[in-house]
């Protein structure tokens, strides 16, 4: 993999901007250390449309809509909107489902993991180690021939379905009909103004589309090819978000940086299950070909396989809250622990059963 210095510079600049936006969204009203979290925001959105009834996490998050729109606009502008799909959709749905179960055990996706570290949350470093181990496990299978079936071209109308759904969600949050749920307390009630959240999502979505930004891809590429471009973007998010948290703490009189394990916002300090939660997410996402953020970006480009993965994440979030699988500030539930272990087994079975021989 030979990449130009310009490509690396663009990725670093994009990472800096993403980190600044992620930290700034907290200043505007998002929960602390949650300027962006694909897992949490899909969970909130699932609650907003009534797929679960956990009253504290119900809000259609404009950032998710913006990410899809930003990717779509960038792809159309560069003629990269290329609807494709048909690669093991049910397998991708299941992998997305369990990637979400792991993320909600940790209480965050890989993007929020970085933002939590930037906010001083040392629990996220434990989860990061699990995340890397999960990716490394997936890479072992990639090296042994793991592969899902090939994609094929699909119609533009099929590739546009998820962006259209995102547009419908935008209409729903603006119109606020009675059947849409809005949290009155808890994380779901904490959000930046709609316009700011939407614009932030569009900017990050466009940047991620142009740079192929992916938290899983950065570590995977470093292990497989010793290529650090995406990893440098990863680091840029961390450094810029950390800098903004320190600046906001010094200028607002409110602490946006709290170094330690205890008393972290929307987090728990059970190290084993933080580790295993993101181990599962990292393992599943390697087999999917990208992190939850990357799946959203690909869906904006018309990739229906990624759209199916997003549906898996969405249903996983609803399932987690309907059946008591998601962790909370008090720690993981027994049901959640069982679900994570089952998820690791299921993902391992998927990895083994999709190993391709040379003849295949």
Automatic annotation (TrEMBL):
The chain crosses the membrane at residues 12-29, 93-118, 124-142, 162-182, 188-209, 230-251, 271-293, 305-324, 336-355. It comes from the Bacteria. The keyword Transmembrane helix applies. InterPro entries: Seleno_YedE, Sulf_transp_TsuA/YedE. Keywords: Membrane, Transmembrane, Transmembrane helix. NCBIfam families: seleno_YedE. This is YedE family putative selenium transporter.
């Amino acid at each position: 993999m030979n990449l130009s210095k310009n490509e690396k510079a663009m990725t670093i600049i994009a990472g800096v901007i993403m980190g600044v936006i992620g930290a700034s969204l907290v200043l505007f009203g998002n929960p602390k250390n949650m300027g962006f979290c694909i897992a949490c925001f899909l969970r909130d959105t699932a609650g907003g449309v009534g797929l679960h009834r956990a009253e504290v996490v119900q809000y259609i998050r404009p950032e998710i809509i913006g990410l899809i729109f930003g990717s779509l606009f960038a792809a159309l502008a560069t003629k990269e909107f290329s609807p494709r799909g048909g690669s093991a959709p049910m397998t991708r749905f299941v992998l997305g489902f369990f990637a979400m179960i792991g993320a909600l055990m940790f209480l965050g996706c890989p993007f929020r993991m970085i933002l939590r570290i930037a906010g001083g949350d040392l629990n996220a470093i434990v989860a990061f180690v699990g995340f890397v181990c999960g990716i490394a496990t997936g890479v072992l299978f990639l090296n042994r021939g793991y592969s899902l079936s090939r994609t094929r071209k699909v119609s533009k109308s099929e590739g546009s379905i998820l962006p259209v759904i995102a547009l419908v969600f935008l209409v729903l949050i603006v119109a606020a009909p009675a059947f849409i749920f809005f949290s009155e307390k808890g994380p779901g009630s904490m959000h930046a103004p709609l316009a700011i959240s939407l614009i932030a999502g569009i900017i990050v979505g466009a940047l991620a589309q142009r740079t192929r930004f992916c938290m899983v891809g950065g570590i995977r590429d470093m292990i497989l090819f010793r290529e650090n471009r995406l990893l440098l973007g990863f680091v840029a998010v961390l450094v810029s978000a950390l800098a903004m948290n320190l600046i906001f703490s010094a200028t607002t009189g409110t602490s946006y940086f709290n170094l330690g394990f205890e008393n972290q916002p929307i987090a728990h300090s059970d190290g084993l299950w933080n580790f295993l939660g993101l181990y599962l997410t990292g393992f599943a996402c390697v087999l999917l070909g990208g992190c939850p953020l990357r799946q959203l970006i690909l869906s904006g480009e018309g990739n229906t396989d990624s759209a199916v993965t997003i549906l898996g994440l969405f249903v996983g979030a609803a399932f987690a809250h309907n059946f008591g699988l998601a962790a909370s500030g008090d720690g993981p539930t027994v049901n959640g622990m069982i679900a994570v272990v089952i998820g690791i087994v299921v993902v391992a079975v998927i990895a083994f059963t999709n190993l391709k021989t040379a003849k295949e």
